[in-house]
């Protein structure tokens, strides 16, 4: 079990935060480009999933898996999107992402009067609390080599 | 959580509003302090209605540190010090308006904006209890904050 990295997007597609823990391979493009690419893909998957669904989709897109990693997606009603890459054996990521949203995002970003709505997060305390939460989680695991 | 958050959000908007008004000098915290003063003055009426009269000044300060503080900030003052000559220092180690800001020195330059209202609140509360004072605040590392109360004797 291990956690690779986390993207947080707002409903307009702005990358609000990017956190990285055990990422072993870099994409070779800038973070900005990577974020755009990521958001574009998520946007497409979302519309693809809802169009192609043979039954009424409830929550829509939840995650995808490859043979090496899994990408988990949580979209909250306000349109905020949490994207977490883990190895493909991890479980319980949905609750984990929910907790990041309610316990860390809402507490240390939304309730921080110095954060301007719709801008990337620069607060040290948010970063520290997120790091602490991720590292305490059993999902974090040992660093894979 | 809900009502606390509303108070917090309203407070931070009041801070933004009073400091961004046109024609107002930059870093002029007096409006904010005055809003706090009137709020404190009024709120004390409600908080002390079940209380007997206070014995002395120290007794009043203790009330501010315990009941007053916990009604407004859901916690008590962590430390009260005095030189017994009209100077009191109230220390809050996790001051509500600063806890989400930082846990060190980041944003330290913004700290005065978020303590001015509370200085007024304390001053207003004391004024209505018959103590004229000057209240200032000092922030060294967030989220801890010290309020200095200087009682003006006539």
Q: What is the ordering of alpha helices and beta strands of chain B?
A: HHHEEHHEE
Which percent band covers the strand fraction of chain A?
15-25%
Which spans of chain B have pLDDT < 50 for at least 5 consecutive residues?
A: none
End-to-end Cα distance of chain A: 12 Å
Order of adjacent strands in the largest pleated sheet of chain B? 1-2-4-3
- Derived structural class of chain A: alpha+beta
The first-level CATH class of chain A is given as Alpha Beta
Task: Specify Rg of chain A, calculated over alpha carbons.
Answer: 15 Å
Largest sheet of chain A: 5 strands, antiparallel
Mean pLDDT across residues of chain A: 91
Strands of the largest sheet of chain A, in order across it? 2-1-5-4-3
Mass-distribution shape of chain B: globular
Percent of residues of chain B in beta strands? Answer: 5-15%
Kindly state the percentage of residues in helix of chain A.
Answer: 25-40%
| Shape category of chain A | globular
Spatial separation of the terminal alpha carbons of chain B: 43 Å
What would you say this structure looks like, in words?
The complex is a heterodimer of chains A (145) and B (154). Chain A has helices at residues 31-52, 93-110, 124-136; strands spanning 3-9, 15-20, 63-65, 70-75, 81-86. Chain A is of the alpha+beta class and 145 residues long. In chain A, a hairpin with a 4-residue loop joins strand 3 and strand 4. Helix content of chain A is 37%, strand content 19%. Chain B has 154 residues and is α+β, with helices and mostly antiparallel strands. Chain B has a single domain (1-22, 30-151), classed as Trafficking protein particle complex subunit 3 (Muramoyl-pentapeptide Carboxypeptidase, domain 2, 2-Layer Sandwich), CATH 3.30.1380. In chain B, 49% of the residues lie in helices and 15% in strands. Chain B is built from 5 helices and 4 strands, in the order H-H-H-E-E-H-H-E-E. In chain B, strands 1-2-4-3 form a 4-stranded antiparallel sheet, covered by helices on one side. The N and C termini of chain B lie far apart (43 Å). The chains are: A alpha+beta (145), B alpha+beta (154).
